[in-house]
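Notebook, bench 3.
Goal today: get a predicted structure for DUF1257 domain-containing protein from Streptomyces flaveus so we can plan the truncation constructs. The sequence was checked against the plasmid map this morning, with no discrepancies at the termini. Length recorded as 135 residues. Pasting the sequence as submitted so the record is complete.
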Amino acid sequence: MSHFTRVRTALRDPDLLVQALATVGFTTVETHDTPQPLYGYQGDARPDRAEVIIRRAHIGRLSNDIGFRRGDDGTFEAVISEFDRSRYDQPWLTKVARAYGHAAALRYAEDHGYDVESDTLEENGGRRLVLRRYT
């Protein structure tokens, strides 16, 4: 039986979270208004639930579902099995958070009339985004 670990993130918008997960390689992600069960590698329903879910079929044959559950403060926390924590660990969550931040910045730019002048991925993994608004 796998153990799920929760890691709090500062992610609030499920649509941006789905975009971030696509950026790190998960293009098939479920979103739900209410928490849904997560399943273990044998297809058994676990007591853990989440609103944003990557099903095990899209992770790997021996993997469990990965979920993001909304906390009382509105942020999502990752729900990852002990088995999958070896691959989907804090550095992976950092990549998700960076991708989320990038998607959020692009949405902000679009919503507020900015044009993206340049968008560069730096060698250290950081991103340089230059926005311009013409008035």
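The two ends are 59 Å apart (CA to CA). The chain has a mean pLDDT of 90.
Flagging this for group meeting.
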